[in-house]
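quick q for whoever's on today - can somebody do inverse folding on this one?? i tried earlier but teh output was garbage lol. tokens:
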């Protein structure tokens, strides 16, 4: 799973994903943690729309915006079954999450060493997500929200090295997770394609796409995930 990433600025997002500037957007911090505000791209009337929302999807049935469980990441294998994500997946509420880089923990040394992941081609990541617009029934407040999709990475040469291993499970059944990059040529298919077409894009990226480096200087208080 991913609990920290860095976004490009608004101008870079609009230029790379060919989004026309519209009304001013809420400000966001470039470094994003769960429940932070961050930008995402969705389809709206046949055009790409840049939206700023909460990185933790609030499902339609939620009575309050603060949930007792985390929803910043969603297992892609469970989207059709999980009540939290089922409606967004069924209704095609798919989005692209722009990221200049994202961080993952590696425990190969016996302690948490954070690794930073960029693309080898220098482009930003466009990560697969789902969005939902939640409305507070009591106040009428409208809250844009999104979640980042993940996929099993036990067989991936690089991503299987991330996250703390479970000593009770064999190496090939750890359920290590990876984010899911959507390449620029697949963005429209992800946003507007059929569910089967979108399902086909839920796959791991080739190892040579990743520029991954350990970040030994990360502050100690950020090694909790």
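ok took a stab at it. sequence:
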């Amino acid at each position: 799973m991913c609990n920290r990433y860095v976004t490009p600025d608004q101008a870079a997002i609009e230029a790379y994903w060919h989004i026309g500037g519209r009304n001013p957007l809420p400000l966001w911090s470039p470094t994003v943690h769960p429940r932070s505000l961050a930008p995402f791209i969705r389809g709206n009337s046949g055009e790409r729309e840049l939206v700023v929302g909460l990185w933790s999807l609030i499902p339609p049935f939620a009575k309050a915006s603060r949930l007792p469980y985390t929803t910043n990441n969603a297992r892609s294998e469970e989207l059709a079954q999980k009540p939290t994500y089922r409606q967004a997946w069924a209704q095609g509420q798919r989005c692209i999450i722009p990221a200049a880089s994202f961080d993952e923990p590696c425990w190969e040394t016996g302690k948490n060493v954070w690794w930073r992941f960029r693309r080898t081609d220098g482009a930003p990541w466009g990560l697969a997500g789902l969005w939902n617009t939640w409305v507070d029934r009591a106040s009428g407040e409208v809250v844009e929200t999104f979640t980042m999709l993940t996929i099993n990475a036990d067989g991936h040469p690089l991503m299987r090295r991330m996250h703390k291993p479970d000593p009770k499970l064999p190496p090939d059944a750890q359920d290590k997770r990876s984010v899911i990059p959507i390449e620029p040529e697949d963005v429209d298919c992800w946003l507007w394609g059929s569910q089967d077409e979108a399902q086909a894009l839920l796959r791991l990226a080739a190892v040579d796409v990743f520029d991954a480096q350990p970040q030994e200087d990360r502050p100690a208080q950020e090694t909790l995930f």
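fwiw The chain has a mean pLDDT of 93. also The radius of gyration is 17 Å. so keep that in mind when u check it
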